[in-house]
Amino acid sequence: MNELLLYFFRAHSALRGVGLAVTLLLFTQCGGASPADEAVAEEEVHARAAVTVGRVQPDTVTDVLHLSAVTAYPAKDVLRATTTGYLIAPVPVLGQRVGAGQTVFTLQTKESRTLHLDKLTGDPRLHFSGIIRIPSPRAGVIATVDKLAGDYVQDGEQLGTVYDQTRFGFQLDVPVTQLRYVRTGQHCRITLPDGRVLEGVVAEALPAADVSIQTQRYTIRPVGKVPQLPENLAVTVDLDKTAPQVANTLPREAVLTDETQTNFWVMRLLNDSTAVKVPVKTGPEQNGRVVVLSPKFSPHDRIVLTGNYGLEDTAAVKLTR
């Protein structure tokens, strides 16, 4: 009986020793992080995307139609030779201003040059000197000079052109799908290639459409002083499609899209370390800001502005200032 009690006592002591060893092992593994574990944790912190955030703000925006146009001088006169002969000096130069009825080109017939009739004009019996003067039918500026002094020209050959600068304007081709947004008398903004902006008004619609590209041409007259511009200069014309309205907007860089630009979304912060993907429906863009039609964000919602490119849904982030 005593031997049996001694056996159970020794077995109980052995089990207590094993339990103590297991307890010490678990304590060693769970009680503190090793240097390697600390390095992994620190790497995870550094792997978070550094982002900046902002909030939606109300802005007054207008839906704008952007179209291309070109400068044009619709009132132009082509000066042609009225007979066969030689062009004599002086010949006008490009950019020279001429008045209505002013002689621009002077021709001498070949008979006159052969017989020297131009030197016999003092004879009152000689009523034809062989000198033909070609005037400008209207005041304007010399746009092209196609012949030089001494050139032999044929009857009807083009000598140059005169542009009426008072009729200067822009030719705007409007797609037929956008005609409802353009009307005569409508004001618009004309942006030149160098960034200057001119005010303009839609003057008239030409009663013809381009069959191949289905556009209708309008004439736009500039308002106020206009710089000297060449013909066929490409410009941009902005016309307001809607009246100004107040809407919530975000900076352009806050709104992300796919390669087809059919789906749009923003990254919204759930907390200081997590951003989630929120699909949005966008409206017009103006001055670098995009209208967000839906959903309706609260003024307290924090939207990722920078560092959002390539972030997946429920991404780990780190706020920066």
UniProtKB/TrEMBL annotation:
Which GO terms label this protein's molecular function in UniProt?
efflux transmembrane transporter activity
The protein's superkingdom reads: Bacteria
One GO cellular component term of this record is:
efflux pump complex
| Classification via PANTHER family | HLYD FAMILY OF SECRETION PROTEINS (PTHR30469:SF15), MULTIDRUG RESISTANCE PROTEIN MDTA (PTHR30469)
| Protein name as annotated | HlyD family efflux transporter periplasmic adaptor subunit
According to the entry, what is the taxonomic lineage of the organism? Bacteria, Pseudomonadati, Bacteroidota, Cytophagia, Cytophagales
